[in-house]
């Protein structure tokens, strides 16, 4: 599992902000680039790219990001445009909305997950959306 943690940071380049272990933050965290949290955060997190929740982190927030990698504890609603990765010993309690969810052995997810594509707002098959030709003719 160590390889997974290293890969997550290496794939996305340089971390631009870091909330270290032993720190506490309440409020709205808005960012661009990659951010890592190892401390305690309560509130809302909004970013376009990568958010890494490190093993010592405890986060209670609504999260909206591009990609989320969790090794710590998260409670709340998560919306990730690209993917969510839960790594050991990560724990997520809440709702996840993402087109791609990866749960590693040893990670825990308790809640609901909606895996619609980023452009997919409806789960109705395309055939069901077509109009009935007889109804259009008034027959």
* Helical residues, percent: 10-25%
Distance between the termini: 63 Å
The tally of strands reads 10
Give the CA-based shape.
globular
Number of domains: 1
Round the Cα radius of gyration to an integer and report it: 18 Å
Order of helices and strands: HEEEEEEEEEEHH
Major sheet details: 10 strands, parallel
Supply the helix-strand structural class.
mainly beta
- In the predicted model, the low-confidence regions spanning at least 5 consecutive residues are 1-10, 121-130
Structure notes:
This protein has 139 residues and is mainly beta. The chain has one domain (2-137). 14% of the residues lie in helices and 53% in strands. It contains three helices and ten strands.
What can be said about this structure in brief?
The chain is mainly beta. The N terminus is likely disordered.
Question: How are the elements arranged and paired?
Answer:
Elements (H helix, E strand, L loop, with lengths): L1 H10 L3 E5 L4 E8 L2 E4 L2 E8 L2 E4 L4 E13 L2 E14 L4 E7 L3 E3 L4 E7 L11 H4 L3 H5 L2
């Amino acid at each position: 599992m160590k390889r997974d943690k290293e890969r997550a940071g290496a794939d996305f380049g340089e971390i631009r902000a870091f909330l270290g272990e032993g720190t506490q933050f309440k409020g709205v965290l808005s960012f661009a680039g990659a951010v890592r949290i190892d401390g305690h955060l309560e509130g809302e997190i909004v970013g376009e790219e990568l958010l890494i929740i490190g093993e010592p982190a405890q986060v209670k927030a609504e999260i909206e990001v591009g990609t989320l990698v969790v090794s710590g504890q998260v409670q709340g609603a998560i919306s990730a445009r690209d993917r969510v990765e839960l790594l050991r010993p990560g724990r997520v309690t809440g709702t996840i909305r993402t087109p791609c969810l990866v749960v590693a052995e040893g990670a825990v997810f308790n809640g609901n997950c909606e895996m619609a594509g980023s452009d997919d707002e409806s789960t109705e098959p395309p055939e069901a959306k077509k109009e009935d030709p007889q109804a259009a003719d008034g027959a």
